[in-house]
Specification:
Length: about 150
């Protein structure tokens, strides 16, 4: 099966599983990068060495976390293809993620928090700020609340 056809099936499967639109968009981007590199070839023709070369060449300008995301996508796509019987052997099964150090979380100082509080003029803004500050919710999570 061609890489593009397998990717469409993979995306459809993940959509059924309830993956978010943002995740599916990220998968589409990774698929495009993979097809740009290999061409739309038969998945059975891709080897572990070719995947490692692709990752090595594309990792020059990537942060370790972005490279890890790319590797997780590739492993997931090829694992799914193997489980669906599209490919006989999974060439991505031996590919490991790079070690990613844990960064120090960014936080606001008390002064910055006060500046943000002072920037809220109407009660709704103040309520939303206090809610986000006290719960740690992300903006996307707050927007999705009823």
């Amino acid at each position: 099966m061609l890489l593009s056809d397998a990717a469409k099936g993979y995306e459809a499967d993940k959509k059924i599983e309830g993956f978010s639109a943002q995740t599916l968009n990220a998968y589409r981007l990774q698929t495009k990068l993979l097809i740009d590199y290999f061409g739309d070839i038969n998945m059975n023709n891709i080897t572990t060495l070719q995947l490692k070369n692709y990752l090595a060449e594309s990792s020059n300008n990537l942060k370790p976390s972005s490279l890890s995301h790319r590797i997780r996508f590739i492993r997931s796509l090829f694992r799914w293809s193997h489980e669906e019987g599209i490919i006989e052997l999974n060439p991505a099964s031996k590919i490991k993620e790079p070690k990613v150090g844990k960064g120090i979380p960014k936080f606001l100082t008390e002064r910055e928090i006060e500046y943000l509080r002072d920037a809220c003029f109407i009660p709704v803004e103040k309520a939303l700020f206090e809610f986000m500050f006290s719960t740690g919710c992300r903006i996307g999570e707050v927007v999705s609340l009823d």
